[in-house]
Amino acid sequence: MKFIKSKCLQKAKGRKIGKYQITLEVTDNDILTLEDFATTYAPFQLWQDYKNEKITYDDFEKECEKLDYSDKYSKWLMKLFYTFCKLWKKYDD
Question: Which of 62, 68, 32, 22 is CA-nearest to residue 49?
Answer without folding.
Answer: 68
